[in-house]
Design brief:
Layout (H helix, E strand, L loop, with lengths): L4 H17 L11 E3 L2 E3 L3 E3 L2 E2 L12 E5 L8 E6 L8 E7 L2 E7 L6 E2 L6 E3 L3 E4 L5 E3 L14 H4 E4 L5 E7 L11 E8 L5 E7 L27 E4 L5 E5 L17
Antiparallel strand pairs: 1-2, 2-3, 3-4, 5-6, 6-7, 7-8, 9-10, 10-11, 11-12, 13-14, 14-15, 15-16, 17-18
Length: 260
């Protein structure tokens, strides 16, 4: 399983927070985050007053920690369930007019922000608008049906502006001789059809493919390499990768077993 090392570090930070957030008493962690009128600090608060969701008043006891959007204008909290729910769910709290609104999503830890606008999250099975709750199904994400598998934050390094293509690090590096350029394999995931295409890129030329941005105190930034991707419209109207330059297709060669 080849994953992006820098993004693996991000998941390590997230998992560390999960571990630190767990206690023998089962009480929620003291990991506070605030955005606009919303706040989480061992409980939910709206306009400074304790808020208990009407249909799930004990939710805060099952929250491990929360963060928010990279866009300071997006008034939401993204919260992750704890071990009592096997870390399997994400909860979004947003303001709808003057009232808070809760949405439970069947997506575990590790969804990523599509870009710095901080409105769309990409998970294993859906794209979701955190402001409106709109969901779009996606296909082709690896290990989508395995709860114990790697998460998008570990391997997705870019998402196209039209949100129809995700770019995954498929191979960190390919064998090369001393003095020669290094190459990496990227996998283009068609989020509408699930089709996959592996392409070589020159890692020496595009060293920013290894970029990494440390998580902030209250939000996880979008994948750093994605901010330097350049996209252009193809003849089919879809966004295509222009930079980095995509080289020939990469085909995995499987070793043949000797006949006995």
């Amino acid at each position: 399983m080849n994953i992006n090392i820098q993004n693996s570090m991000i998941l390590f930070v997230l998992i560390s927070l999960l571990v630190l957030g767990c206690s023998s008493s089962g009480s929620p962690p003291n990991y506070g985050v605030e955005r606009g009128r919303l706040k989480y600090d061992s409980g939910f608060y709206v306009n400074g007053k304790l808020w208990l969701p009407k249909d799930d008043p004990k939710l805060s006891s099952r929250i491990n920690w929360c963060d928010t959007s990279p866009n300071p204008k997006v008034e939401i909290l993204r919260c992750f369930s704890d071990s009592s729910e096997n870390y399997a769910f994400t909860y979004l709290i947003r303001m709808k007019g003057d009232e808070p609104e809760l949405q439970k999503i069947d997506e575990p830890l590790g969804s990523i922000w599509v870009n710095d606008e901080g409105k769309w999250l990409l998970g294993k099975k859906i794209l979701i608008n955190v402001e409106t709750g709109e969901q779009k199904p996606v296909k082709g994400m690896p290990w989508a049906d395995r709860t114990d598998s790697s998460a998008p934050v570990q391997y997705i390094i870019a998402v196209s502006p039209d949100m129809k293509t995700a770019v995954r690090t498929y191979r960190e590096s390919l064998p090369s001789k001393k003095g020669e350029d290094d190459f990496r394999v990227l996998q283009l995931i068609d989020l509408e059809t699930g089709n996959l295409e592996n392409r070589k890129v020159n890692l020496t030329k595009y060293s920013w493919l290894k970029d990494y941005e440390q998580p902030h105190d209250d939000f996880l930034p979008p994948p750093a390499p994605g901010k330097k991707f350049v996209w252009e419209k193809g003849e089919d109207g879809r966004d295509k990768v222009k930079v980095p330059e995509l080289l020939e297709k990469f085909v995995e060669v499987k070793e043949k077993q000797n006949d006995k």
